[in-house]
Structure formats: structure tokens, C-alpha cells
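Q: Convert this sequence to C-alpha cells.
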Amino acid sequence: MPIRRGVIGTPPPPDPTPPDTPAVRDVPRASWIAPDGTEVPLTSPGQTGYRLLKGLRGLGGVPVTLTTDKLPRGGVRVRTVRREAREIDLPVRVTGSTHTEFIDRKRNLLDWFGQTDELGAGTLVVWRPDGTRRHITCYCAHPGDTDDDGRLAENLLVTLLCEQPWWYGPDEVSDEALELADNGSYLARFPNVSLSKTLGTGDLDIFNPGQLAAYPVWTITGPCASATFTHADTGQSFAIDPDYAGGGPLLLNDTITVYTDPMAIYGPSGQAATGAVNWPGANLFPLRRGHNRIILSLTEAAVGAGVAWSFAPRYRSA
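A:
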């Protein structure tokens, strides 16, 4: 019988509390986490000399493009809905008590945003007064320099490009169901996860707290010969055959990891195992917002077999 380990919240690093901003203030806060790991508070002018101005744009809903077909009797029919990349404008005022301090702060800020051209994406983090937090990965599309330098202060308009338009919350959701030796107390304590010891079948009830569908990472642990996942509501499914290349079933503690988006499958030694999926009929389905019931079937499962899953909830706005 299985035992279910409780939901684990794993905050994406780093998750600092912005200093110099009393929690009682009813104002949003923001920080930029540069690709080199430097955290830059953008709403703590007394500490950093940086303050966001009016004109902040791009924290709202997901931008979409609708493709339509005109109907002969008037109106249109929506054919596709495509979520587009997001652009964020950050108007930042840089100040200093001396020109040397001001120009040092300005140069540092331009470097922290500009690092994305060499080191990869950075992260914009937004805190709301109600305690919620959202973050999104971005590239700097325009560093925000102005035509002339100020003496003690200058306003910059930094433009960020987000490859994916959704925001992520602070916690990753993860859990697992394990195949254990017979012990009736386990099933009574964890009624939402039931795997038959002999058949390796059962239901997984997974809750997605986000506002959008989330694409999970599944990890199948042996011993088992195959695994099939089916979404009870949509009927979408996929199957994993560890013996697709003649290597045999999964042995005890062997794993196959399935990333559903972007799609990638890795075998016990970390090797690519794309052929283990039952293409072309497979559908690496997402977890819809709210409750999801997943029908799981493990063949030839024995004590030690299990399935683990994790995903990052996604949100429409900051």
C-alpha cells in the first residue's frame, strides 16, 4: 500500500524580503535579481537610490493574439488563441547624495540589467501588500539610458522582454506516491492516493493552485515494467516503456524522468529516453487549474516503486 508524503513548498532562490520597506505600508515592492545573483531592490530609495516611478507597464494579464475566420453571414470564428511574449516597462529614478555616488549607482543598475545579454535571463519579483509574491524571468531589451546624464538624479526607462508571459508564485508544488509493503494504516491516513500493491494502479488527486494550466515533471521509480498516466477528465494519456531499446524494466531505485514542457525524457543514467514514450499517440498533458484526477497504472510494480511529481503554479498577472 502507498504512503503519500505531504506537499512540499520549495521557493525558487532567492526569496529575500526587501529591506527598508515597513510591512505595514500599503504599497507594492519590487526587486530585480540579476543573472549573477545580485538582488537589487527597486523600491527602497533610502537604501539603494532606486525608486520606481509612475508609468510601470506590463504587470497585467497575459497578452494574446486571436486568429479569426470571417463568417459569410457576418461576424468571425476564433480559430486559435496564442499567448504572446510579455514586455515590461520599468521607469526607475536613480539618485545619489553626490555625483560620484549617483553615477556609480547608475552604472551598477545598467550593468545588473544589461547582464542578460551574456549571462542569460534575470528575474523580476513583485510583492503585494497582501503578502502575495510573483516572479517572472526576463531579458533586458533596452537598458534605459537617457540622452544626457543628470548631476544627482536621472530617470531611466528599462524595457524587459519575457519569453513566457505568465508569472510564477513563490512555491513549487511537489508530492509522491510510494509502493510499500502491506500496512492497512497507510491507506486510511492517505485516502486521496491509492496504488494497489499487486496491480500498481490507482488514482492521484493533484490540486493546481494557479490560474493557468501547469506542466508537471514526473519521476517514475522502479521496480516496474511500464507506467501509464491518464487524465480522468480529458482522457489525455501517455505511457512509458523502459524496455523500448531492449534494456529491460526499471530495477529498484532506477528512474525515468518526464518533463512535459518543454518536453524531455531522461533514463536511469541521465541519458535521453525519448523513445520510451508511446509516440505518436502520447499526450504529455498539463494539470488544469484546480483539481486533477490522474489514473496511474504501473505494471509489475514491487515494493519500492513509486511516482513523484512537481510543478510551478502559473498566474496571469503580478
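The CA atoms of residues 85 and 164 lie 6 Å apart.
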